[in-house]
Amino acid sequence: MFAYDFMRYAFLASTFIAITTGVVGVFVVARNLSFLAHTLSEIGFAGAAFAVFLGISPLWGMLLFTLLGSVGVGGLSLRTTQKESSISAISALFIGLGILFLSISSSSSRYATSILFGSIIGVDLSGVTRLVILSVVVLFIIAIFYRGLKFTSFDYLGAQAHRLKTNMLSVIFLIVLAMSVSVGSQIVGSMLVFILLTLPASTAKFLGKTVPQMIAWSVGLALAGVWGGLLLGYLTNLPVTFFISAIEVIFYLIVYVYHLKHN
């Protein structure tokens, strides 16, 4: 299997993607921002489609749109009592924009499938390099602001009482989340990236007693999902995304049922 360049690139890229989304996902779940991760994935779809229309890498368009969208949607969710309705309207708008950009671009429909559902097998060396760099940047930011992000994510009132710059940390996290959505979309697509950002972390919540333990479990589960998905996809010639999603859902259901029976 590893005799093929595309499989080596796929495993390398998916490893960094799983580590990044596994770490960031713990803070997403702690902050109850799963809805935002889903919304950003739809905004990212429009960004990727816009990039295809311009003839550049979909990753850059996705990164631009999610960075702008994270701050905009994040601010909107704090300032309006109609949070769900407002964000749903934004999601619908950007999905429509994505379809528009794809329909007027000269590229084939395969780009639409790749953007929506991922195309990790088709990642080349330059694509892997971009993903690795972005992943390292995300993890570096998390490492620098780890204490503040942990405090504001798991004890927001305590963070305010200790006079931490909660607003600044929230903006930093929104930027990190946007970058993670852009990175994760390369393997499972813009429509399913929230799976890697929520399910491993949600499962880890039942397994870890401390934040470092939850991060370790989340990363481990994400790695198991993407590696298992790549292996099964290679053996069966079926979509890798399906196997990744199925593996993560199975992990979650097993742990959740076990937790219900023993608590």
UniProtKB/TrEMBL annotation:
InterPro entries: ABC_BtuC-like (IPR037294), ABC_TroCD (IPR001626). GO terms for cellular component: ATP-binding cassette (ABC) transporter complex. It comes from the Bacteria. The chain crosses the membrane at residues 6-30, 42-65, 85-104, 116-149, 169-202, 214-234, 240-258. It is a multi-pass membrane protein. It holds the Pfam family ABC-3. GO terms for biological process: transmembrane transport. It is found in: Cell membrane; Membrane. Keywords: Membrane, Transmembrane, Transmembrane helix, Transport. PANTHER family: ABC-TRANSPORTER METAL-BINDING PROTEIN, METAL TRANSPORT SYSTEM MEMBRANE PROTEIN TM_0125-RELATED. Belongs to the ABC-3 integral membrane protein family. This is ABC transporter permease. It comes from Amylolactobacillus amylotrophicus DSM 20534. The lineage of its organism: Bacteria, Bacillati, Bacillota, Bacilli, Lactobacillales.
